[in-house]
Amino acid sequence: MAKRSDWIAKDGNTSLKLISESPSHTQRIGVRIGELARAGDIVLLVGGLGTGKTCLAQGIAWGLGVEEYAVSPSFVLIREYQGRLPLYHIDLYRIEGIEEVEGLGLEDYLHGKGVSVVEWAERGMSLVPREHILINMRYISYNKRSLSLMPRGERYMEMLRAIGGDWDCSSQ
Fold first, then answer.
1. What is the 3-state secondary structure (H, E, C) of 37-85?
2. How many other C-beta atoms lie within 10 A of the C-beta of residue 69?
3. Do strands 42-46 and 145-152 pair parallel, antiparallel, or not at all (unpaired)?
4. Nearest to 30 by CA among 13, 14, 18
5. How confident is the model at residue 74 (pLDDT cuts 50, 70, 90)?
6. 131 with 156: CB under 8 angstroms?
7. Is 160:17 a contact under the CB 8 Å cutoff?
């Protein structure tokens, strides 16, 4: 499983940093997020090309019970999958400006009855609800990634506490 690096408190905000050693570890983190997800949850993924955003989204889909393989929706922008809750997999990579994001009808998904996972979320941050969990992903080495989970709102603090408990430092 991924290593729990540490809890970080900056400016009163709490985050959890996890280190993933492989794509399958990243997917397992996603599976746990999917298992914990509730209707209306919003997961924002930020990071450069190749940092594992789609890999994490695949795990979230599996944690929601989606049987098909979640692929990057880059060319269609939004893919919907059915599991115990609908998964709205949104990819803003090809969006060039906030005006394009506004025209997508993103609000219908973000305020819907499913779980929204938004890749390249930084391109539409002004449109996302204030409460969400933001996951900043960084490339460390060929298979190794850093994931910083930053909750905004009590619902997502609860999720963070559950995830943090799964990767207890004493068991590493």
1. CCCCCEEEEECCCCCCHHHHHHHHHHHCCCCCCCCCCCCCCEEEEECCC
2. 9
3. unpaired
4. 18
5. low
6. yes
7. no
Alpha-carbon gap, residue 88 to 48, rounded angstroms: 21
3-state SS string over 130-143? Answer: CCEEEEEEEECCCC
pLDDT at 11 > cutoff 50 = no
Q: What is the CATH T-level fold of the domain 3-7+21-95+106-163, as seen in this structure? A: Rossmann fold (3.40.50)
Q: How does residue 1 score in pLDDT terms, banded at 50, 70 and 90?
A: very low
pTM for the complete prediction?
0.87
- C-beta atoms surrounding 50 within 10 Å: 12
Quick count: other Cβ atoms within 10 Å of Cβ 150?
Answer: 20
Token look-up 């963070």 returns 160
Distance (Å, rounded) from C-alpha 162 to C-alpha 151?
Answer: 12
Amino acid of residue 26: T
Q: How far apart are CA 12 and CA 48, in angstroms?
A: 26
- What are the beta bridge partners of residue 115? 87
Write down the domain spans for the chain.
Answer: 3-7+21-95+106-163
In angstroms, rounded to a whole number, what is the distance separating the alpha carbons of residues 15 and 148? 6
User: How many whole angstroms separate alpha carbon 5 and alpha carbon 115?
Assistant: 27
How many residues make up the chain in this entry? Answer: 172
